[in-house]
Amino acid sequence: MSHSKAPNTDVNDNGNVLITAKGVNKSFGDRPVLQNVDLTLRPGKAVTLIGPNGAGKTTFVRILLGLLTADSGSIVRRDDLRIGYMPQKIALEATMPLTVRRFLKLARKASNSRISEELALLSIEHLADQQLIALSGGELQRVLLARALLPNPHLLILDEPAQGVDLAGQAELYQLIGRIRADRGCGVLMISHDLQLVMSATDEVVCLNHHICCHGEPEQVSNDPAFIDLFGPNLSPGLALYTHNHNHEHDIAGEVKPCDH
User: Most buried of 37, 68, 127, 155 (most Cβ within 10 A)?
Assistant: First the structure.
């Protein structure tokens, strides 16, 4: 197994690629955050990016989204690429009256019928007229997922999608993401540091700690020496909430707010 670059970066498949990142480097001041990072994302494939806090995961995703510019390296996106992004959390003003439907219309300028379609898919249509600030953690995560789905994306990028959700809700949410990927054929990039979940709903795991330490199928990565050095020897795919069978801050409109790196 390679310990420098992700294995899926050699692309000779007639454009069946959503995003290709090659040799991405990024520093803040004199502190290197990303060093020679490669990754390719394809339709219908789920990739999960894991790593300790401060490893550069969010910085890398912001570069993929075009919100940050790499110091060097290249990012190539498919010409017609539509991306749906689900942030880890959003900053909510407790005194601002804002319903779920209004929030989704502000974020994507979507029609009421389009909003209703995605809310129904996620079994939260009953929340359409609820105040956003009154939602539970699990309900809010589903609303953020609905927002990411509104443009009918080719690629879903999900930053800690199970944040603030209880264990039963986490399993259900990951299963739902898997069904959406299967039904729509979209690629999925998930960012997580929850190792008990990461093995359950992904085709490939990429372990990032400023550079790519290891990569591969979940079972391979969990036995890789670099993975064990970072996370310890006691995690295995058997700890996942369900078995996967292989057949920064944002304001209320979804805009990125400056945050500490």
Answer: 37
State percent of the chain over pLDDT 90.
51
Write the class of the CATH domain 1-82+153-250: alpha beta
* 9 has pLDDT over 70: no
DSSP line for the chain: --SSS-TT----STT--SEEEEEEEEEETTEEEEEEEEEEE-TT-EEEEE--TTSSHHHHHHHHTTSS--SEEEEEE-TT--EEEE-S-----TTS--BHHHHHHHHH---HHHHHHHHHHTT-GGGTTSBGGG--HHHHHHHHHHHHHTT--SEEEEESTTTT--HHHHHHHHHHHHHHHHHH--EEEEEE--HHHHTTS-SEEEEESSSEEEEESHHHHHT-HHHHHHH-TT--GGGSSS------EE-TTSPEEP---
Which pTM value belongs to this model? Answer: 0.79
29 backbone φψ class: left, alpha, beta (φ>0; ψ -120 to 50): left
Entry field: residues in the chain: 261
Instruction: Give CATH 3.40.50.300 domain extents, the chain.
Output: 1-82+153-250
Instruction: Sort strands 155-159 and 83-86 into parallel, antiparallel or unpaired.
Output: parallel
